[in-house]
Structures are given as C-alpha cells and as structure tokens.
From TrEMBL:
It comes from the Bacteria. Keywords: Membrane, Transmembrane, Transmembrane helix. The chain crosses the membrane at residues 18-37, 49-65, 106-129, 135-155. InterPro entries: DUF3267 (IPR021683). This is Membrane protein YhaJ.
C-alpha cells in the first residue's frame, strides 16, 4: 500500500486550539439548541429537581462516547489496542487505537457513531422530558463539543479515495491506497 496522505492532527490543530474550538462549538450549540427547543416545545415550567441526573450524565458522557467509538471495531480483536486509565481512582479515561489499516468506511462509522447515536437519543428525550429541556440541551452541547475532533477527522478522511485504508499514528493518521489505484 502507498500513503496517499498523512494528516498530522497535532500539528494541524494542536491540543489548545482544538480545546478552544470544542469549547466554542459547545457554547454555540447550547445557545442555538436551547433557543430552538425552548421555543419549539414551550414547556409550561422547567424543573430543576434531578440535578444529580444531569451531573451523572455529564460524568458518564465521555466514557459512553469512547465506548461507542469502540463498538463498530470491537470485532477486529487484537489490532485494536485498548487502554483504560483511572483518574482519581474512579473515572475511566479510555484510549482506543487501531494499529493496522482498516477500511475508510469502517473508520468513519467508528468515528461518527457516538455523534449520531447519542445525539439521536438526546433528541428523542427532548420530547419525552420536555420539562428538562435545559438539562438535555447541556448534555447535547457537551456531546457536540466532544465530537468536534471526530468531525474534523471525518472531514479530512471524506476526501480520500473510496477504497482507501486508514491507519492511526501518534500525531494523526495516514490514508493508504492500494498500489493499483
């Protein structure tokens, strides 16, 4: 296989810039979603009991997000390296790396699965729990902010040839094509 393109994600964006982009996206998403949903659903009152559920949702969002990245590639077995670090002894930080090339389609599915699954579930919950629109909007904005790096990866990968393979490295990823393309 030949390398079609190398994307150095660290060099292109940098961790601080990526954090700021995610934070700003989160803020804009909250404002737009809250304005839209509060006008669309127009609940008579907003409840602020069950704040602990919101806090649990925020705490569990990142591990759920990472787990949903892993789900589509779990069947690949040994080529997927999984590492769990425990922060403060209770909070799991998951690292998932694919150390061999996988198809572009499978990589994109794994990359975007958390965005589509969690956003869909939260969108449905708007209509089931309309008195908690503000809580759901906070969770949705947080999820969108977490998905910013995934979206940026997907934008770069989308331009690759149809039958390309993607291989992750320490700073980003390489897009590989077979020699006959």
């Amino acid at each position: 296989m030949n390398c079609w393109k190398t994307i150095n994600f660290t060099k292109q964006y940098g961790p601080q810039r990526l954090f700021i982009i995610s934070l700003m996206t989160m803020l804009v998403a909250f404002i737009i979603l809250y304005m839209a949903m509060s006008h669309l659903l127009v609940p008579t009152t907003l409840y602020d009991n069950h704040f602990a559920v919101l806090v649990c949702g925020v705490i569990l969002m990142y591990p759920l997000h990472k787990f949903l990245h892993f789900l589509p590639i779990a069947h690949l077995g040994a080529i997927v390296k999984k590492k769990i670090e425990w922060k403060f002894g209770i909070y799991p930080i998951l690292e998932i790396k694919v150390h061999e090339p996988i198809t572009k389609t499978l990589f994109l599915v794994a990359l975007l699965m958390p965005l589509f699954v969690i956003t869909t579930l939260l969108s449905l919950s708007y209509f089931l729990f309309e008195h908690y629109v503000h809580y759901i909007t906070i969770l949705m904005a947080y999820q969108i902010g977490l998905s910013v790096p995934d979206i940026l990866h997907a934008i770069n990968i989308r331009k690759a040839p149809k039958n390309a393979y993607i291989e992750e490295n320490e700073d980003g990823f390489e897009i590989l094509v077979t020699k006959h393309q």
